[in-house]
Structures are given as structure tokens and as C-alpha cells.
Amino acid sequence: MASSHFASRLRKDLSVDMIRTKIVHRKSLSQKANRHKEYEQNRRFGLKDVNIPTLERRNLELEDTSQELIPEEMSVKPRSVKSVLSDQRRQMLQKYQEEKQLKKLKEQRE
Q1: DSSP state of 53
Q2: What percentage of the chain exceeds 90 in pLDDT?
Q3: How far apart are CA 110 and CA 105, in angstroms?
Q4: Which of 55, 12, 102 is nearest to 110 (CA)?
Q5: Cβ-Cβ contacts under 8 Å for 75 (sequence gap 6 or more)
Q6: Quick check: 100 and 94 in contact, CB under 8 A?
Q7: How far apart, in whole angstroms, are the C-alpha atoms of residue 15 and residue 12?
Q8: End-to-end CA distance of the chain, in Å?
Q9: Which domain of life, per UniProt (predicted)?
Q10: Which of 8, 37, 65, 109 is most solvent-facing, going by the fewest CB within 10 Å?
Q11: Helix or strand or coil: residue 68?
């Protein structure tokens, strides 16, 4: 009788539903661990003290002094990342439209 109990238990553990349940449970545990790990990382940063100079402020001060040292005619405004990305997208769109027109013309010729 005891062996039949274990045999039915084994069959139950190998069923498709049980395997899916185990996978879902394992995935849920890993997500929980990842959430906790991220929470702990963010918790370490805490509140920033205003009196302590941060790296960003130091960089701003360095940029101000470097701009003063560079003559006006040599200073060139760098393009912003957004404008560069938008130009790239515009070029890709134009290329796509040209390819589409060529494809359309080829189909009309045939």
C-alpha cells in the first residue's frame, strides 16, 4: 500500500500541470529575488546631502571655466543627441520611402 502511495505521488509530480506549476513558482521566486536585490541597491543611495558637492556640479564648474579659456571663435556648439537621432530617423525614413517607390515602379513595369 505504501508503494502505491509513492507511485501515485510520482505520477502526480510528472504531470504537465504540475511541471507548469513548478516552473511558474520558480519564475515567481526569481522575480521576487530580483525585485528585492534592486530595492536593496536603490536603498543604499538614500537621500543626497546638498552641502556635499556632487560630480555633476564639479563637471559644470569645469565646463564654465573651460568655456572662459576657449576663444569665442573656436567654440562650436555640439549638436544635441535628440537632433542627431532625429536626423538619423529622418534619413532612414527617406531611404525606406525611396526603396518603396522603386519597388512600386518595378511592380508596375512587370
Answers
A1: P
A2: 27
A3: 9
A4: 102
A5: 67
A6: no
A7: 5
A8: 78
A9: Eukaryota
A10: 109
A11: helix
1 has pLDDT over 50: no
- CA dihedral of 96, 100, 101, 107, whole degrees rounded to 10: 160
Cell numbers describing residue 19? 511541471
Helices assigned H by DSSP within 46-80: 55-69
CA separation, residue 44 to residues 37, 40, 47, 50 (Å): 11, 6, 9, 17
Amino acid identity at 106: K
> For the chain, how many residues are written?
110
- Cα–Cα dist 48/46, whole Å: 7
C-alpha cell belonging to residue 12: 502526480
Distance of CA 27 to the CA centre of its chain: 21
